[in-house]
Every structure is written in structure tokens, then in C-alpha cells.
Write a structure and sequence with these properties.
Blueprint: H1 17-21, E1 29-31, H2 34-43, E2 47-52, H3 57-67, H4 70-79, E3 81-86, H5 91-105, E4 112-116, E5 122-126, H6 140-153, H7 155-167, H8 185-199, E6 200-201, E7 206-207, H9 216-224, H10 228-235
Parallel strand pairs: 1-3, 2-3
Antiparallel strand pairs: 2-4, 4-5, 6-7
Helix pairs in contact: 4-6, 9-10
């Protein structure tokens, strides 16, 4: 017996085939625009921004594993304003937030997953997240709960993350030009290695300075530079 069709979300009205593909997800998706941004500000909720495109293999994998999962969608809907963007339709947004995640983590790609304040400032980012802990990555439900808890109860840590992105090794991320090149990899990694060495303490394997919750952007970057304490802490986050 064929299941009755699900009620579509707002993406059913979009022209992008990629966005319309997500129209029957149980996630309460919004397209990027005034309605979603106003909702985030009015409800004081963080934005979960997901950017992908039709030919992206891992975008389809994450949709199947996470966005079609009723339990994961319920977490997303309860704690975030969820925005879906087609990178081919909005290359400006993709370039901006891809540059941020690349500078924070040392890698990028799609699907791009970025958590923003209601003012659209990124404070946490990554690419593909599995539905449970695997591939050395935290499961998406664990990420959602951790980010929601931090935003709700440790707002100062969120503000510190935003400030670090503005003024730390990723200085200028928030206002990156839509066209242009990020800092050279050599100069970026040299600055980042110095920052990681100062902020990680081998005895506690935790960040010595705010934010006090382990931020995967910083943790991932330290792992990439070979900081042993960071690698250990990230693996148990």
C-alpha cells in the first residue's frame, strides 16, 4: 500500500530543483530570505544553514540519513530556524560561508552546515554530519543538542566564538568579500598553529580560553595541524 504524500514545507514554492527536492522533508525548511531571518530574530533562535546542490553525492546522503529522519528533524525544528540554500542559485552566500568554514576548519565542501546567530554571524560549522557517531565525526543529533544547549545556556561562549572568528586567525570572516582569495594557506596555518598551541592544555585536553565548550572548528583545525592534545579532545567530544 502506498503511503499518503507528506505535507510539503515552504520549499515546494521555490524554483530551484534542489530546494524542491527537500520540500517533503519533515524539516521545517525555509529558503534564505526576510521571513526566515525575521523568525530567527523574533524567536531568538540560532539559524541552521545547509548549503548544497543537485549533483552533490554527500548532500543526498545527508538528506537521506538526517533530513528525512523524523527524530532528527524534530530536533532541528525545535531548536533552530532551518534554512536550505542551493549554491548554484546563491553563489554569494555559498562563497561567504564556505570561506568561513574553510578558514575555521581547514577544509570545506558540500553539504555545508553552518550555525549562525540571528544576526547571521557564524559560530560553528562543518560539512557532512552522519546520523550517529562514525567516521571520526560526531553524529548530527549530538551536534544539534550541543549547539542548542550552548546557545540556550552559555550565550557568552557563543559570543566568544563569534568574537574569535572576527578577531582571531579567522579575522575578517564575517565580512569576507564575495569575490577574492582567502589568506594564503601557509600564512593561515602558521597563525593557527600558534593560536592552538596557546589555547590547548595537555593536562586537561580542553580549551584553556573561552569558549569553554569544545568548538569543532577550532578542534578540527588543531587536529589538522597535528596538535596531539587537540586530536585527543576532539575524539572524545
Amino acid at each position: 500500500m502506498t503511503s499518503p504524500p507528506k505535507h510539503p514545507n515552504r520549499l515546494i514554492h521555490e524554483t530551484s530543483p534542489y530546494l524542491r527536492q527537500h520540500a517533503y522533508n519533515p524539516v521545517d525548511w525555509y529558503p534564505w530570505g526576510p521571513e526566515a531571518l525575521a523568525k530567527a530574530r523574533a524567536e531568538d533562535k540560532p539559524i541552521l544553514l545547509s548549503i548544497g546542490y543537485s549533483a552533490c553525492h554527500w548532500c543526498h546522503v545527508m538528506e537521506r540519513e538526517c533530513f528525512e529522519n523524523e527524530a532528527i528533524a524534530a530536533l532541528m525544528n525545535a531548536h533552530f530556524v532551518n534554512i536550505k540554500v542551493d549554491r548554484e542559485e546563491r553563489p554569494d552566500l555559498d562563497h561567504l560561508y564556505q570561506s568561513v568554514v574553510q578558514l575555521m576548519t581547514g577544509q570545506g565542501g558540500w553539504p555545508l552546515t553552518v550555525f549562525l546567530t540571528p544576526e547571521q554571524e557564524p559560530f560553528y560549522g562543518g560539512t557532512y554530519f552522519p546520523p550517529d557517531d562514525r567516521y571520526g565525526r560526531p553524529g548530527f543529533p549530538r551536534v544539534l543538542r550541543a549547539v542548542a544547549e550552548a546557545y540556550r545556556q552559555r550565550r557568552g561562549d557563543i559570543a566568544a566564538s563569534v568574537q574569535q572568528i572576527r578577531e582571531g586567525p579567522c579575522s575578517g570572516c564575517r565580512r569576507l568579500p564575495l569575490r577574492g582569495k582567502p589568506p594564503s594557506p601557509r600564512s593561515f596555518w602558521r597563525r593557527l598553529r600558534g593560536g592552538c598551541s596557546a589555547r590547548w592544555t595537555p593536562c586537561t585536553e580542553a580549551l584553556a580560553a573561552s569558549p569553554s565548550f569544545p568548538t569543532p572548528p577550532t578542534s578540527s583545525s588543531c587536529c589538522a595541524t597535528g596538535t596531539a592534545a587537540a586530536t585527543s579532545a576532539f575524539s572524545t567530544w
